[in-house]
Sequence to fold (675 residues):
Amino acid sequence: MSEKTKDVLLSIVASLLCIVIGLLVGLIILYCINAENALDGFTRIIKGGFYLKPKGIGSEIAQSAPLIMTGLSVAFAFRTGLFNIGAAGQYTVGVFGALYFALILHMPWYVCLLAAMVCGAIWGAVPGIFKAYFNVNEVITSIMFNWIGLYLVNELMYSTVKGMYDQKTTRTYKISSVSPGSLIPDCGMNAVFKTSSTTIAIFIAIALAVLMYVILNKTTFGYELKACGFNKDAAKYAGINDRRNIVLSMMISGALAGVGAGLYYLSGGAEWNPQVATALPAIGFNGIPVALLAMSNPLGVVFAAVFVAHISVGGAYLPTKYFQPEIADLIVAVIIYLCAFVALFKGVVAGVLGRKKAGKGDAK
Amino acid sequence: MFLLIKFTLLYAVVLMLVALGGMFSERSGVINIALEGIMAIGGLAGVFVLALGGNLPAAVLVPVSILASAVAGIVYSLLLGFSAITLKADQTIGGTALNMLATAVAIVMVKAFNNASEAGNGAASAKLVYSNEAFIYKIGPFTINIFLIIGIVILIVSYLFLFKTKWGLRLRSCGEHPQAADSVGINVYQWRYIGVMISGALGGIGGFAYIVPSVTTWNFEVGVAGAGFLALAVMIFGQWKPFNIAGAAVFFAVFRSLANIADSTVLSNLGLSKNIYSMMPFIASMIILAFTSKNSRAPKAEGIPYDKGQR
Fold:
């Protein structure tokens, strides 16, 4: 086994360890709240979408697609040495791009998706520019632009742009009733899963994950971006334009989050409520645990996103009489907290394996 | 105008308390992005005390609830300290996780509490109702809440502690050059824990101060609605110095208050909506950060885990 595959395997084991501990904490909490029904609740979380076939599986697929994208967004930035905590804001602005092109301009879905991507890219580029030219930490800028984006989008959708906000539902108009051509085709998947928003979005997301993997690992461009992340000064010394690359990294990262918004809203998954001024979309923030769980590997992101979607769909099936669906969020949060010191786990796992090997050597 | 001053003071105290907390943590070398979560947990603990002990006399209830919020904040901040100091994990990731955890914990606890007290009718809300009369005093036309007084005291104490005592110097040295601090016998890990715990206490009180004086019902689904992040901006804008932070807090609070009163006063004639005012402090701080970051006075060793073996 080469060093590299060994490291990948170790990472996978460490991530699984985080998941197992997180789930155990969840089980303990279920026991504390209601011991009688704890096991029932726990199996519902573990079963996830499979608890209510086929509808649950359909909604799990529908939720996975945007999660893969925001996870990719955060993971891509991580790989290039940046922490994009602004995926939520880029996602929000992407929602506006997608809905504007769909509800107002009645464009076909792929144009709307492109619009969402461009909007996300612009919103991602701003923290990049601040980082590259003014030396402001991207974490702070991203957080600021999350809120600026949220207020801006709410303002635009609620009052500035007429024809997006539906007084009756206090949300934006349904795409399916205003501009059905802007919906991402479902290729019969909605009929199979008996849902309304299971579309080919998931395949687009997986294809983009593969594309990001290729860009990061197989191209010169990806290598340059990563080099800036590893050591900015060394990259500069090697003739890489570090400022341009920081901005580009953030732009791509933002674009990915924007596509995520497009995939979700153009599938008819939800309508935006511009009057809730305090809540940034959770999908944007959930990209962070997804990326961490996947160790920032674009292909790992796909599995991590499906896992997080699985758990939260499972949380929704908890009997509300005894339990709160947010227990699923709690489990995910515990898992990321553990992910923060995943390097330590890796060391422990490697140590245990090493001791075993040494033991075997003695026996011989 | 009175309304503007009232709201400004309300917000300024909260932002200042939390930003001062962040300052202690960062001065000791630990980036505390978990302030948002610490505020939510502190607020939760304080409000629980109010909801459970509503019959107690004000003289008991006020200090106990504030103490509860501070203690809850400290306990929660220890989670950050454990991952960032003892395990040397990435401080931003640990903090982000704690922010997400805080909201989830708050919702689950409040819903479980409501569910139990309403004999399990299912679908309980994440809202707690409480009385805040004990915290508010009327002096002439002004209504002053107790947190204003606490805030001013803490501001002065913070300044004296950080810049006029040997303990403050020790704490600061851990954030500037921990190796040098260690070489003269200062326990870097211990001081970083102290820094994080102070930030937990102030963040917890700040969260309580954010929730209690203005409303009598709080829906924990929104956490503290980004106030913790705003406090981080206030801290940077205040350049990690107590009195600058107080000034920055007032600056941010003015805009925040404008958003609150925009619809009901003469300002509505300007035709600017609430959203625009809400955006303003963020935009203003971005512009200021862009111009000031070149000569930023951030603690030099913040965000870098201290490893004794590394020189």
